[in-house]
Write a structure and sequence with these properties.
By secondary structure, the chain is mainly α. It is built from 8 helices and 3 strands.
């Protein structure tokens, strides 16, 4: 990466390096490299070119990421891997195409098993939680004992208004 820094450092004066917005510098870095780069490498390259201290670099992590994310010239093509949008056909920059290029630690079968387990552990079908209507209400206190009588009670209340 230092070769790339030296190349850009020669092209830009010290004043230009100080004045150029970080996001524009990222654009120049990617143009110079000609292939996608990890965000952390882009951040390190910007910090090196701008002469940031480690503290300054840490302070700009979120700002630069946000600027790259909202700038239409860039596209995320993998986990934290950024490229220039014009390198990719439109259909490759959609979420589904990008998601298809991301490698996961789980294969499809393991993922399906995990999703199925999560569904089994979820709430019961009525959405009230297991045993919601088995809580000891006897109906003498005005509260319904089951879901159907709750609906009937709610409707009765509206009639009494």
């Amino acid at each position: 990466m230092s070769g790339m820094s030296e190349n850009l450092a020669v092209q830009l004066s010290d004043e230009e390096l100080r004045e150029i917005p970080m996001v524009d510098l990222v654009h120049k870095i990617l143009q110079s490299k000609g292939e996608p780069m990890l965000y952390r490498d882009l951040l390190q390259e910007v910090a090196r070119l701008k002469g940031f201290s480690e503290e300054e670099t840490m302070r700009y992590i979120a700002q630069l990421f946000t600027e790259i994310n909202i700038d239409g010239r860039f596209v995320c093509v993998g986990r934290s891997l950024w490229g220039l949008k014009h390198w990719y056909p439109t259909e490759q920059t959609t979420d589904s195409a990008v998601a298809g290029n991301i490698k996961d630690d789980l294969d499809e079968e393991e993922l399906d098993e995990e999703l199925y387990e999560d569904e089994e552990e979820g709430l019961d079908p009525d959405g009230y939680g297991e045993g919601a209507f088995e809580d000891g209400f006897d109906g003498e206190d005005g509260y319904p004992d089951d879901e159907n009588s709750m609906m009937d009670t709610d409707m009765d209340d509206e009639d009494n208004i």
